[in-house]
Structure formats: structure tokens, C-alpha cells
Amino acid sequence: MEPADNLGQIAGEVHACKLCRLHVGRKNAVPGEGPANAELLFIGEGPGFHENEQGRPFVGAAGKFLEELLASIGLKREDVFICNVVKCRPPGNRDPQADEIEACSSYLDRQINTINPKAIITLGRFSMARYFPKARISAIHGQAKQVDGRLIVPMYHPAAALHQPSLRQVVMQDFARLPGYLDQVTDISPTTHEPPEDPQQLSLF
Predict the structure, then answer these.
(1) Is the pTM of this model over 0.85?
(2) Residues 6 or more apart whose Cβ sits within 8 Å of residue 77
(3) Within the chain, what is the greatest distance between any pair of CA atoms?
(4) CA 116 to CA 110: how far, in whole Å?
(5) Measured between alpha carbons, how far is 102 from 86 in angstroms, rounded to an integer?
């Protein structure tokens, strides 16, 4: 199956999914969007009000800031794949719960394996915890690390910078490093995803 067709099949499964409680209150599932050959894959936390209405990721204020950040490194949102750790909106925009994240994990794994991006950028602590379960985002944000043969760059969620203006410059500086990290990626040989026991032991670019 072609990668684009595979992504379409995954999206169809997400729209019909009832693996966790989040499907009960959804208006639209939000599987994610972007090209099947994207070099960068962004993983956020969960759909919000606007995403639930439109069925697209990052279409609210945080999405506009993400588009600004992409533009700052010469990219458009159409150049990258954007998704979340959960595909349906948590009630009241609460944090996604562990069992909800687990229920969606196979969809996300399949999307990553299909796209095979040069780098994955985690936005916020819930997607960061997928690769760095014991780390604090304040300690490792913007630092590229190899996990299971793939480059992972943890970053603050764009919404955090909107709520805490002091983080805006930090997020912009982290984004400015992305092109340099991509230049260092020569070959991607990912293995089955297994979160590291101790992210502090990972090699740092």
C-alpha cells in the first residue's frame, strides 16, 4: 500500500474508533494531516474546541503560532505532518489520561512508521513523555536526541508560549535550531518504539 493510502486508512479507523471514552463526546476525530513524505512530524497533546469542530489539528491560536514558527524556518504547515497523542478532544480541554494515550498509541505508531520522518518534534509534556518519560521539559527542550534510531526534539507546546509570554522567545530559539539538526540526519533506521528507561543517558547533538 502506498504511504498516502496507508495514512488514509489509519485516518478512517480513527474516525470510527471507540477504543476509549473520548469518542463519546467528539464531534470530529482529528487523526492528523500532512504529506506522507514529510521530513518533520509534530506531535501535540490533544484536539481542542476548534480542532473538534473542524477535524483538523492546530487550527486555533496555538496553530497560528505554530504556523509562524514554521515560517521562521522557511516552512509551511503543508510541508510537515501534524498530529496529537490523542485523536479526540478531552472534555473541557483537560489533560489526556494515560489509558486514552495508550488507546491512540497504535495509530500514532503506524503514522510514524508510514511517514518515516527525519525528525519528530514533540510539543508539550505529554508527547515528550512518549520518548522521555522521566524528563522535565524545562531541562531538555530544544535538544535533539536519538531514540530508537530516530531524531526526537522535545519542545514546549505553542499554547504554553501564549499563556506565558516569557516562553515565546525560548520556543522561537528552539525552532531556529531545527534546520541544523536536520542537516545532521543522514540515515533513519528506526526500531520498534520503546520509551527509554533513562533519557539522561541518551547521546545529545
Answers:
(1) yes
(2) 34, 58, 63, 66, 67, 70
(3) 46
(4) 10
(5) 9
Residues belonging to the chain: 205
The one-letter amino acid at 151: L
Binning the chain into helix, strand and coil, the percentages to the nearest 5 are: 50, 10, 40
pLDDT in tens, the chain (205 residues): 899 999 999 999 999 999 999 999 999 999 999 999 999 999 999 999 999 999 999 999 999 999 999 999 999 999 999 999 999 999 999 999 999 999 999 999 999 999 999 999 999 999 999 999 999 999 999 999 999 889 999 999 999 999 999 999 999 999 999 999 999 886 555 544 454 444 333 333 2
Q: What 3-state DSSP class applies to 153?
A: strand
- DSSP letter at 149 equals T
Tell me which of 3.40.190.10, 3.40.470.10, 1.20.1050.40, 3.90.1300.10 is the CATH number of domain 3-184.
3.40.470.10
Residue 150, strand partner residues: 147
CB 40 within 8 A of CB 81: yes
